[in-house]
Amino acid sequence: MDTKKLRIKYNNDWPKSFDFPVEEAFLNRLRSKGLQQALVSCDLGFSDDYQFQFYLGYLIDALDMLPKRPDLAFDHVWKALDSEFFLVQQEIGNQNCSRFDGFVDRILNDEKSSAVFLSYLPLIPYQTCEYAAKRVIEESNEADNHAKTLFSRAKNSLGSSFVEKFVAKYPPGVNGKPAPADQRKSGRLLKLIFSGNEVYLAGDKFLFSDEELSKFLIKVVLANSRNERFHGGVFPPFRSSSAKLATYAHAYYLLHISYALLLDVFLYRDHGVVQSNDVVSIMNDNSTIFSLLFGELG
User: Is 204 helix (H, G, I), strand (E, B) or coil?
Assistant: First the structure.
C-alpha cells in the first residue's frame, strides 16, 4: 500500500494506530542494535527555579515523542532554546546583536558550559548537509524577507566570500533550485567543512572555526528547519513516500544537538541539577548511539 492510501487508512482507523514503513524500518534498526531509544536522557537533580522548570516542561514533552518522532521532539526542545536565545540577548543589552550569536558565544566561552555539542560537528549526516546547501542556494535570490534573512545568516556565519563563491559554483536553476548533481556536490562540500577539512573554492582556501560552524549550524540549519516545520513549509517527514533511514538521521542529529545545548543551559545557569562531567558523559554515550545507528549512512 502506498503512503497516500496509508495516510487515509491511518485517519480512518484512528484512534488505532500503525507504523508507517520508515517507522517500522527504524524500529527494526533500533532492535537490531540492541537499543530501545536513540537518545539517552541525563538524570537531573531537583531545583524549583522557575526558568529551569519552564525549560524542563518542554524537555519532557520532547522525550514523550521518542523514539519514532525525533522531529517533534526537536520542536519541543527548540522552544526552550528559543526562549533562552532571547534571554541571552536581553542580558547582553544590545537588541542589534543576533540572539543566536550571543547564545553561541555564551556556550563557547562560559567556564561552566561543557560545549560538548562540538563533538557532533564531524558527525553531521550527509542529508543534513545537503538540506543546508539546498536552502542556502535556493534563498540566494533573496526574493523575500525569509530568503534575505536565511542568506544573511549564512554569510554572517561562514563569511560572504565563501557563501557567494559557494552559490556561484552551485547556482540555482530557472526553477530556483540547484540541479540534482549540484545539490549532491554542494552537500558533500559542507560535509567536508564540518569534518574539519580545508576546502578550495574559486581559487581561495577556506577553513572554518568551531565558532563559525556552530553559528551556521544553529542559526541556519536548526533555526530554518524549525521555522519551515512551524509554518507548514515541508511535508511531514515520516509520513512521506520519500522517507528513509537517512530522514531519521537528520531529525535525530537536530535533536541531539539541541539536547546538548539545553543541558549546557542548565550548566551555565547554575541550576545545580547536573554536573559538567555528567553532561559530557551522557552526550558521549549519545554520540556513540548516533554513530552506531546512522554512521554508515554517510
Answer: strand
User: The cell 547582553 sits on which residue?
Assistant: 92
Least Cα distance to 294 among 261, 264, 252, 263 occurs for 252
Total tally of structural domains belonging to the chain: 1
pLDDT digits (tens, 9 = 90+) for 10-49: 999 999 999 999 999 999 999 999 999 999 999 999 999 9
- Residue 120 lies in domain: 54-297
C-alpha distances in angstroms, 55 versus 69, 83, 112, 162, 263?
Answer: 20, 9, 18, 36, 10
- Residue for cell digits 557567494? 164
Q: Which distant-in-sequence residues (6+ apart) come within 8 Å of 188 by Cβ? A: 126, 129
Q: Is the pTM of this model over 0.90?
A: yes
User: How far are the Cα atoms of 41, 98, 244 from residue 294, in angstroms, in the given order?
Assistant: 19, 33, 12
Domain annotation covers residue 248? yes
